[in-house]
Write a structure and sequence with these properties.
The complex is a heterodimer of chains A (144) and B (464).
Chain A (H helix, E strand, L loop, with lengths): L1 H48 L4 H5 L3 E5 L2 E2 L4 E6 L3 E8 L3 E5 L4 E5 L4 E7 L4 E7 L4 E9 L1
Parallel strand pairs in A: 1-4, 3-9
Antiparallel strand pairs in A: 1-2, 4-7, 5-6, 5-8, 8-9
Chain B lengths: L19 H21 L12 E2 L2 H8 L1 H24 L8 H10 L2 H9 L3 H4 L1 H17 L15 H17 L1 E2 L2 E2 L4 H22 L1 H7 L2 H10 L4 E4 L2 E4 L15 H17 L5 H13 L4 H32 L7 H7 L5 H23 L2 H4 L24 H30 L3 H28 L3
Antiparallel strand pairs in B: 1-5, 2-3, 4-5
Helix pairs in contact in B: 1-18, 1-19, 3-4, 3-7, 3-9, 4-9, 4-16, 5-11, 7-9, 8-11, 8-12, 8-14, 9-10, 12-14, 12-16, 13-14, 14-19, 16-18, 16-19, 18-19
The chains are: A alpha+beta (144), B mainly alpha (464).
């Protein structure tokens, strides 16, 4: 009985040790990812500092809606936490674009377009849809 | 090629896939913990006895009093009523309506969570049990005798609950489709389903008796009660008491069909996780085949999902039965049938771990809605603000992606260890010889590693 308790304690200690290792390793992993995300940050930084540059504006991804559906299927955009999320929706139908999670809504006219520009503050996978049609047009991904 | 956007009605923020390094660490932890568990294996069962002892007399009397039972039962009936009313009369926007969040998040996910720690807390609040008992008492008073009931067939056991469990999940993730798109269940449909289920349950209670039906047939009693067996509080002969945690689980699966209940739980959660990743391709191709064969979009999507839910159930059952078959080959083993029901309870912690891994973030987010705007404006029509919280929203920043991942992996690893503990304990009870007991457990170890690593895998490919 007593020796079993001892062995159980060793077991618990081992699991805790493994968990500590995990956290340590994870920190290393994270500094690794920050390292790789620096170029990304560098990429979005000029966009912030020189928002008026025309060539930068051309890089804003545009989701084209034809007959109420996204051309080429549901668009996918991926960002890291802290990035600026920018995209444009050009639609041939009038509807309301709703970005879930961030809960942003903007109306779009038939034949018109609407732009989104907001900081990536919430991690996760989100959808944006044409609210009235219930049609998903974008899968937005914000990594930590 | 049609792509299928699978969606719950309520999920506004989906979880990011588990990163590869965390998947690897989770899987290694599982293996280390498993082999360690084998090496420390104790030699005589520790959980077969509940070691139940009564709590203070006053507490027992208060909990068993007619007043307490009436208040709890009435609260259950009232909340079910609010949900049904909101579903019928409220907005069709699923996230703004009290019905869906209350039924499928607060109750469906909340009761397992609380029960795992405390015991069967659903029982006093069970609205159908409350109504059934009230009707029974009324009948006794008027007729001067207790109502007579049909004899419940022993072979039926918990099978009605197992099928019901699949039906409840099916309703939420399969039924709510329109035009080939999974839009999630509508509040109206949820309310109608609740009414249908209420009618069915009350009829069954009238036929077989309230307590009998709650023990074996009523989906929510059986399902929540299953998790409650892990918890440390339990009532005996109307007295409230404390027992050794996990110990009550060892006697849970003695009723036929119990293994099917816990397997259905693991399978339905697996399917829900897999449809966002692991099964996505297979689902799409099956769907396209059915559409090409001339089937309507809605029908094709429902049929595809139904087939895969049943396949998942069969797959999970097969893994378990292979493990049981293996154990039956170890010398000194009891019969296959006895092993099959004898080890089913060791899957309960795994079923709970699956629930946490797949729904933890949804629960945290949706409960914010439950206790703010859904409480103040249950219909979602903007006409009421009962508690002044109608304009509050969900703070999706409440959980970082890392926090979600750690909880997911932690739940799977802990559920795995507890499952192994229960299985090992049962083996020491079934095999007199310690060495044979340990040998039999290589099989259960394989089963559990399979389930846990499959759980980790599902998380790593969901939304990838």
């Amino acid at each position: 009985m007593r020796s079993n308790t001892g062995r159980t304690l060793i077991g618990v200690a081992l699991v805790i040790a493994a968990l500590v290792l995990l956290v340590v390793l994870k920190d290393n992993g994270q500094s690794g990812t920050t390292g790789t995300s620096v170029p990304q940050g560098g990429g979005s930084e000029p966009a912030g500092s020189a928002g008026s540059t025309k060539s930068r504006k051309a890089e804003v991804p545009t989701i084209v809606i034809r007959d109420g559906k996204p051309v080429g299927g549901i668009a996918e955009l991926s960002y890291s936490e802290g990035d600026r999320i920018r995209f444009k929706v050009a639609s041939d139908v009038s509807d309301e674009v709703h970005v879930h999670g961030y809960d942003l809504m903007k109306d779009v006219e038939a034949g018109g377009s609407v732009s989104f520009d907001f900081p990536a503050t919430i991690e996760g996978v989100f959808e944006a849809e044409l609210e009235n049609r219930g049609e998903q047009i974008l899968e937005l991904r914000v990594n930590p | 090629m049609t792509s299928l956007p699978f969606a719950h009605a309520l999920v506004a923020r989906q979880d990011l896939p588990l990163p590869v390094w965390l998947f690897a660490w989770g899987a290694s932890l599982v293996l280390i913990a498993s082999f360690f568990a084998l090496s420390i294996g104790w030699r005589s069962p520790r959980f077969e006895e509940e070691h139940w002892r009564a709590l203070g007399e006053g507490l027992s009397r208060a909990s068993a009093s007619l007043f307490t039972q009436f208040v709890c039962g009435a609260l259950g009936v009232f909340l079910l009523g609010v949900a049904v009313y909101a579903g019928l009369r409220g907005t069709e926007a699923p996230d703004r309506n009290f019905a869906l969040t209350f039924l499928y998040v607060t109750a469906w996910l909340g009761f397992p969570l609380v029960s795992v720690f405390l015991g069967d807390v659903f029982r006093p609040f069970n609205p159908w049990r409350a109504v059934g008992r009230a009707v029974g008492a009324g009948f006794t008073a008027l007729a001067g005798q207790r109502p007579a009931h049909a004899r419940y067939p022993a072979w039926l056991g918990r099978w009605p609950a197992a099928l019901g469990l699949i039906a409840v999940v099916w309703l939420e993730i399969v039924y709510g489709t329109s035009g080939g798109v999974a839009v999630g269940l509508s509040p109206h449909a949820a309310a109608v389903a609740s009414l249908v289920y209420s009618g069915y349950t009350l009829a069954m209670m009238a036929l077989f008796g309230v307590e009998q039906w709650c023990r074996t047939g009523e989906v929510f009693s059986v399902y929540f009660g299953m998790f409650g067996r892990l918890g440390c509080f339990g009532a005996k002969d109307g007295r409230l008491g404390v027992r050794r945690p996990l110990s009550a689980a060892t006697t849970w699966a003695t009723v036929p069909g119990s293994a099917a209940v816990v397997i259905a739980s693991i399978a339905t959660t697996s399917f829900d996780g897999a449809q966002e990743g692991a099964f996505k391709r297979a689902l799409e191709s099956t769907f396209n085949h059915l559409v090409d064969a001339g089937m309507g979009l809605t029908m094709a999507l429902r049929l595809t999902d139904t087939i895969f839910i049943l396949l998942t159930f069969a797959g999970v059952a097969l893994v378990y039965l292979v493990g049981v078959r293996g154990m039956a080959g170890v010398s000194g083993a009891p019969s296959f049938e006895k092993l099959r029901s004898g080890f089913a309870h060791s899957l309960i912690p795994i079923a709970f771990a699956y629930l946490v891994a797949h729904y933890f973030s949804l629960f945290v987010f949706q409960e914010q809605a439950q206790f703010t705007y859904l409480l103040s404006d249950p219909l979602g029509t903007g006409t009421t603000d009962l508690f002044g919280t109608a304009s509050s929203g969900i703070d999706f920043r409440a959980l970082s992606a890392n926090a979600i991942w750690y909880v997911q992996v932690g739940a799977l690893v802990i559920g795995h260890v507890i499952g192994l503990t229960l299985a090992h304990d049962r083996a020491t009870a079934y095999w007199g010889d310690y060495r044979q007991a340990a040998r039999s457990q290589y099989w259960m170890l394989a089963v559990m590693v399979a389930f846990t690593c499959f759980g980790l895998y599902l998380l790593s490919v969901a939304n990838a």
